[in-house]
């Protein structure tokens, strides 16, 4: 039986109205950073372009500075989904209800198109991870959304292409909507294969649906700084 140990690794400091927690989890010999977000209490948003410059934020610190000008404090941030050259999201990107990049229905070419892929979306106090074609059919109009791939877990089942013996090991990031209704962003502390990463979402975090975001460039930020070393075309944030 696998054992899970959770302990706070990045305390945010001071009393917060938010429910946000950032913890380290060890499962099956792998370590993960897990950010848990309760949409009834936490302000989760997606950012791409700075409205003052129309250029991508690219870094957590640029976003932190912008939020500070608005009188807000960045509590947590992490990269969004896979992006294309020119720092443009490769798939659907929705901010404040506006579709800035349309749904991408590609079925070949890299991890993004390892179908089934999907969309992580937020609508008010609700969130979901929905397979791309099902998302299109549902006619959802989310407040924020990012498309990426592959789906790690779909309705409790791991992606059919994943194998326990898979030999592609990378640092990986993903997002799941879990049985308790909370959103969980996860980054592995060391290289893992897709099977191990997906299993962590399903069996440890109890997320029946989860989406892969990106690989080795993935990073996160807190009030104490960040370890980012590559630019991003989309950034998820929790702020107050």
Automatic annotation (TrEMBL):
UniProt entry tagged with the keyword Signal: yes
Signal sequence, renumbered to the chain: 1-19
Ranges for domain Phosphodiester glycosidase: 75-220
UniProt keywords, alphabetically: Signal
Database matches in InterPro entries: NAGPA (IPR018711)
Protein's UniProt name: Phosphodiester glycosidase domain-containing protein
